[in-house]
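A quick word before the example. In earlier lectures we treated sequence and structure as two separate objects. From today on, think of them as two lines of the same record. Here is Acetylornithine aminotransferase written that way.
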Amino acid sequence: MEQVTRAWFDEVVVPTYNPAPFIPVRGSGSRLWDQADREYIDLAGGIAVNALGHCHPALVATLIAQGQTLWHVSNWMTNEPALRLARKLVNATFADRAFFCNSGAEANEAAFKLARRYAHDKFGPGKDQIIAFYQGFHGRTFFTVTVGGQASYSDGFGPKPGQVLHLPYNDIAALREAISDRTCAVVMEPLQGEGGVLPVDPAFAKAVRELCDQHQALLILDEVQTGMGRTGSLFAYMDLGIEPDVLTTAKALGGGMPIGAMLTRDDMAQVFQPGVHGTTFGGNPLACAVAGTAFDLINDPSLLAGVVEREAWFREALAQINAQYQCFSQVRGKGLLIGAVLTEAWHGKAKLFVDAAAEAGLLILVAGGNVVRFAPALNLSREEFDTGMARFSEAVAKVVAG
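And the structure line, produced from the sequence above:
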């Protein structure tokens, strides 16, 4: 069989990405190995997806067992794994109903359509404004990329969906001035991931909830990246003293298996009667079975407490590295979604640190040009962490030395 090389990507794949020069071929825990059998410590987690690391034995066992019984059925039937997963999600959250799809973008697309339809059916066609926030990220469909607050992702594709207003994140006065009875929904990440690992101010979160209630608008929380244990609670809203009307999740939900979900209350769910919205692959037995096992492993008090413990590991190690190299102005985030914000001298150069880390055998992320992001497995071992941060220190030294 012909040897696959990185050059194939440039020949046969649409160039939406510029992947690393190496190709990973196997993984275990928080380690990956490439075609040359070189080892990498993975502190990127597939962008917060591999919440239990690579090839977790329980997920592998579930995948094999379900793969030998039932993979897919059409959506005029339901299936046991989907029903079990839906029951787990509604029992653990504010929600009464779950809608399954294949990604975070699809979950957000469903949420935005639900908000528009709910307002239309309950209040009439004039209540259609969606308020979102600058630097937010909600997916790559045309609707979700328009609601996302980064014009560079939505410009150049023709007329955008209308009645979407963007405001500064964490600015209560701006929201109070802008929201009205025409607003059908406010969409917010409890911690902006792609926008720079920027946490919500709890006072702002409570003000959003109160203003939504005053104007009969739905509060949609995008927990695609923050959900499923990432911040040390099952979902980030649980630490904010508020509840959303709609919540979206994906990434870690399947522990690496593509799946997304929209959660909502019963009265809102009723506007999605048969034929109003749908998905061919959403809720398939294979993805839902694996997600059900991942849910059981993540929704465990000891694992969630371990996320908080590991956050402290990162903050201590990054402080030690920064004491030597002075390249970070602050470390922010929560749980195992950590952002090391670069000092002004290094603005726009976050990828230099990512590339140097890869050369040292470490996988990390950026969150814009000014933030180095860590989103590792929630069960990251101390030995994997120590090895990874030693390699990160080596990478930082190399970048600073030029």
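Notice the following. The longest strand covers residues 328-334. We will return to this example when we discuss secondary structure assignment.
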